[in-house]
Amino acid sequence: PVAHGEGNFQVRDEATLTDLETNNLTAFRYVDGDGQPANGLYPLNPNGSIADIAGICNRRGNVVGLMPHPEDHVVPLQNPLGENGRLGLALFTAFVQAMS
User: Fold this and answer.
1) Are 49 and 30 in contact (CB under 8 A)?
2) What distance in Å separates the CA atoms of residue 61 and residue 49, rounded to the nearest whole number?
3) pTM of the prediction?
4) pLDDT per residue over 31-56, tens digit each?
5) How many other CB atoms are found less than 10 A from the CB of residue 9?
6) Which residue of 1, 19, 64, 99 has the fewest CB atoms within a 10 Å radius of its CB?
């Protein structure tokens, strides 16, 4: 589920991207169904985010920022495909299970 309008993840410079990668601050990436890099290809990387980055975290790992918006697709009414699926709920369910 994506509700980004024209937003996408960008970095100031190559050094910033290197810092994110070196310090494992990339929390989520856009990938294909096999977990392989999206390589910037639409619709796998739906907004053109640099290095297929969908989310980053701070150095302590206790704050995460996401470009996709799974919270925007938790109840069936929010599904842009008009189907019954609750597309964003799986991410939140996985978080709760990981914390249990």
Assistant:
1) yes
2) 21
3) 0.77
4) 999 999 999 999 899 889 999 999 99
5) 22
6) 99
